[in-house]
Specification:
The chain has 285 residues and is mostly helical. The protein has ten helices and four strands; from the N terminus they run ααβαβββααααααα.
């Protein structure tokens, strides 16, 4: 199916007349196309490629570089690997293995050849999908508690900063302190969005992760999360933030995975997303 060239020209004229930034035009066109033609497609589909190619040809050079919706990291074989969640429109099928774009095929086969390691990765990947899509949606919502939303967006910034640190060829060990801050702010965000939290109350909690975790368990009712409490021990004291950091890679992973899992919990509650419920392990898993 080809995108009508007259339709593309018309949309470009409309965007130009409305003063739409050239960088936004292909995204607006993708959204309009999906609605007007009742079409569902991903960014690697011929439809999306045609739309991007048209606006690339008819816009300033370099204006339409396409990135991912959300990049995370997964720890395997003593290394951190980027997990990329693509931008998509409509309902599409995703292949979790394709998100490991930088992982050599041999290592990828080893990861996915064992049911246990394969399922662990799929569960993590599902978290990335829900978090990436959900946080994007929630960032534009005005119905959330204002302070809770502020905390959620601040925690998201900390999490993405930690990801950038862990994506480096030599992971930055200060990432664990960043994960600590993300965890603290995510816990405060959960409390604020669930039962309410004032700025004064947030300050009274200070940086005490154990007290925050107690309150999180109390207001969420997720008593099964009690087993995650011991993971808080991997975080350095907030007093050490001005000191040189040195942590084993396993601790970096534990701290990061905990921070993202709490963020994902919030996003799932508020967005209703739950990718893992749509996935079932094969019989041999």
């Amino acid at each position: 199916m080809h995108v009508p060239i007259d339709w593309l020209k018309q949309k470009n004229r409309e965007f130009r007349d409305a003063g739409v930034d050239p960088k936004r035009r292909p995204w607006e066109a993708l959204s309009r196309y999906s609605i007007e033609f009742r079409s569902k497609f991903s960014l690697d589909s011929p439809i999306a490629e045609e739309i991007f190619e048209y606006f690339k040809t008819n816009s300033k050079s370099g204006a339409h570089h396409v990135g991912s919706l959300y990049d995370s990291v997964y720890f395997y074989d003593a290394a951190f690997w980027v997990v990329s969640i693509p931008i998509m429109y409509g309902t599409v099928q995703l292949d979790s293995s394709k998100s490991l774009r930088e992982m050599p095929e041999q290592i990828k086969r080893e990861l996915l050849s064992t049911p246990e390691t394969a399922w662990d990765f799929v569960v993590f990947w599902a978290d990335c999908v829900d978090y990436g899509l959900g946080i994007s949606e929630l960032s534009a919502q005005s119905v959330l508690d204002p302070f809770g939303r502020q905390l959620l967006m601040a925690a998201d910034q900390e999490l993405r900063s930690a990801i950038s640190q862990l994506k480096e060829n030599r992971p930055n060990e200060r990432a664990l302190m960043t994960c600590r801050m993300a965890t603290e702010i995510f816990l405060k965000a959960y409390i604020a969005l669930k039962v309410g939290l004032t700025e004064k109350q947030a300050r009274e909690f200070g940086h005490n992760l154990d007290k925050l975790f107690d309150r999180f368990l109390e207001c969420s009712g997720y008593l099964n999360w009690e087993v995650a409490r011991n993971k808080l021990e991997v975080f350095p004291s907030v007093q050490d933030r001005y000191s040189e950091q040195s942590h084993p890679a396993a601790n970096l992973w534990t701290g990061f995975a905990l921070a993202q899992s709490i963020g994902t919990l919030i996003v799932r509650e508020k967005s209703g997303r739950n990718t893992i419920s749509q996935i079932r392990p094969s019989k041999d898993q």
